Amino acid sequence: MTITDPIEKSNPPGDDDICDAIKRRLQRDRVVSGDDVNILVAEGIVTVAGAVHHLLEKKRISEIIASVRGVRAIIEKIDIEVKQRSDEMIMVAIDYAIGMDTVIPAGLITAHADSGHVTISGDLPSWGLKQLAEGAVLATDGIRSLQNSIEVKPQEDRPDVELEHEISELLCSNVWVDESMLSLQVENGVVVLSGSVGNVAQKTRARNIAWTPGAKSVDDSQLQVIPWMDNDMQDDSIYQIRTQDEVDTAVKDVLRYDPLISELDVIVTVDNGTATIEGIVNTLQTSRYVMQDIEDVVGVYNINNNLQIQFADHVTDGELSNSIAAALMKDPILENIDVEASANDGVARLEGKVETHFMYDRADSVVAGVNGVKEVRNNLHVIIPLNNETDSELKNDVEKELFWTPNVGSGGVSVSVDGGVVTLSGNVKTIKEKQVATTAVLTVGARKIHNGISVL
Do residue 52 and residue 71 come from a single domain? Predict the structure, then answer.
């Protein structure tokens, strides 16, 4: 791959404006308390300091900051003030969390807790599995810090030329990354990324892609974040027109090189931008992983998911209801929500109230990860605070939120508000853009949204 030298652009987002945008999102999120953290922005580099109650809250803060246009890097100085919990209880909870994940290989991970400071170690064949293990442990209450010392040891050595070609193709087909601004080198399985991206989220995405099976480590220290590029990501030149065969190949490559999916019996065909998925998977969460991979491919405009879910062991409705309730209760973000969970023939139903759309999605994701769930009917009601804004004020808030959201071509999205109902219209290039635009509007507190955006 070659790198195009960046050209300085005028009018990048100002530090004060970036700071205000971050604080607005923290206040609206309500999973984290904006009053408990301090935000300082200097030349797009965000320093966040303060105290939170668990590691998931800390992670959520970083996700919110990374979701703001203009952020070049994040420096965390956050303390964890957890509930007192013995190391023995923490270890039991960690073993349970890892054991409940049907994707993580059993018996390959060990954990050690010392006064709430946890280290997980072991050998896993891919970086994706390493991240899954970390995610399972993060949800354990009582942890003050987490050191992920799991080593990635690929099952086979692959030629550097093969790895470089594969990563280059994956970067080229991903909707969030402008591969023309990146440089890639592979030596002895060590991947080095350099060049430029438009925001922190794009840098993270490029690093994740580089961790393809066979990679031993990834160095992205030479990958710069240049905020003006985020605007250029909306140019049509980024989304090169691809033939149906090229899109079909890209989709199959993404699934073949994803270690969480590559061993599964999944068949995908692409016809005029519509991907149809057939096959058998063992969990609902795995089915969603397949969907997420395909949504990232340039040239896919619609997905028909016909995957069947078959479980290794039969789970009764009573056992499944208890497992769902336990999973929700063990999650630090969801432990106090007002929700009633039930199951019928593998279909989980959630009833109750939550404070934010993030908590709505979080509950949905947690339940989807429970073994035995083949469908989630999420009837949770999001409690939206009373908003006395006029239609004009709400429209301004929505447009502002779209502007501050990376990877959303706000110039191609029109906003109208009538009686408090927000309507989005216009054209975007990818499924993910449409989804991100919807999420951005929900954070503003709109009570009803009609998303009329077309993916072309």
Answer: yes
**What's the CA gap between 357 and 441, in Å, rounded?**
11
Check whether residue 70 and residue 96 sit in a common domain: no
pLDDT digits (tens, 9 = 90+) for 92-146: 999 988 888 777 887 899 999 999 999 999 999 888 889 989 998 998 888 999 9
E strand or H helix at 280: strand 274-281
Match 């503003």 to its residue by tokens. Answer: 444
Q: Is the pLDDT of residue 35 over 70?
A: no
The residues facing 118 across adjacent strands are 113, 146
Which tens digit of pLDDT belongs to each residue from 332-376? 888 888 899 999 999 999 999 998 888 999 999 999 989 899 999
> What phi, psi does 430 have (nearest 5°)?
-140, 160
Structurally, how many domains does the chain consist of? 5
Same domain, 356 and 376: yes
Do the Cβ atoms of 286 and 101 come closer than 8 Å? no
Q: Hey, what are 304's tokens?
A: 């028909």
Within 189-239, where are the H helices?
A: 200-210, 228-232
- β-bridge pairing 308-309 and 302-305: unpaired
From 382, 399, 416, the end of a domain falls on 382
Whether 445 and 428 map to the same domain: the answer is yes
Residue 375 belongs to a domain:
yes
Q: Which residue's entry shows tokens 């308390």?
A: 33
423, 429, 435, 437 alpha-carbon torsion, rounded to 10° = -50
pLDDT average, residue stretch 153-169: 90
